[in-house]
Amino acid sequence: MKELLALAQLPRATFYDRLHRKNKPDKYAALKVFIKKTFHDSYETYGYRRIHIMARKACFKCSPNTILRLMGQLNLSVTLYSRHTSGYHSYKGKVGTVNDNLLHQQFDAEEPFTVLHTDITQVRLLDHSWGYISAIIDEASREVITVIVRNSANKEQLHLTLDDLAKKLPTGVTPIVHSDQGWQYQTREYQSRVHAMGIIPSMSRKGNCHDNAPMESFFNLLKRERLNRQPIKDLEELKQIVNRYVTWFNHDRISLNKNGLTPIEYRNQAAV
């Protein structure tokens, strides 16, 4: 042994220290399993900060740096899939009612169901068709209140979106709902419906996507974290993927800006 160590130019103490470490149980074994599961359950979008919050919730005693180091050992790194996609433009000029911009980019609502945001985006499918996603989110909690996926951005999709919203609005609330100046939102049907529901409509300035930044942010996350990760063959598959993501987003996706709460947790806390 002495000759082998000399040949390897390895001190005797170093050899036995490494041997001891190799035979020693891994004190982070359970945490590593938790990290891998949490990472994969998050569609591989959680970095070490979010995983650290989840680990603390699960009663692991560890630091953010420990999570970062273990993720490196496990070869886990976040990959967000960004690619250019054709934007959906529903603006056709002034074809109906254009509401005032009541928000002026002041996105500071803290109480759920006081300010809502809505918009429509499109996704190219493998069968050479388009899928259109109409959604409404809550500004305070970032909860996706309703999402409707259809093969056309028409009045029917808008009616279904409002029908679903009507089922979920708490009694007595009179929120602002902010949209762009898309033709759907200017129609008499939309304007009459939201007023009948006790909702106050607000609109972005023409061509200014920053006026509806919370909605733009959600659609950006949806595409980078989920839709851009795989080819989507048809509308039915798009519906399944979007609905699964929204369920996870509302119930499981924690936000660093909301002290590690999910949208549903934020809403429930605000109701106490």
Automatic annotation (TrEMBL):
Pfam families in the record: HTH_21, rve, rve_2
Domain Integrase catalytic: 108-271
Entry-linked PROSITE patterns: INTEGRASE (PS50994)
Transmembrane segment boundaries: none
Source species, domain of life: Bacteria
Alphabetized InterPro entries for the sequence: HTH-like_dom (IPR025948), Integrase_cat-core (IPR001584), RNaseH-like_sf (IPR012337), RNaseH_sf (IPR036397), Transpos_IS3 (IPR048020), Transposase_IS3/IS150/IS904 (IPR050900)
UniProt record, GO biological process: DNA integration
Any one GO MF annotation of this record: nucleic acid binding
Signal peptide extent: none
Known role: Involved in the transposition of the insertion sequence.
UniProt cross-references to NCBIfam families, sorted A to Z: transpos_IS3
UniProt name for this protein: Integrase catalytic domain-containing protein
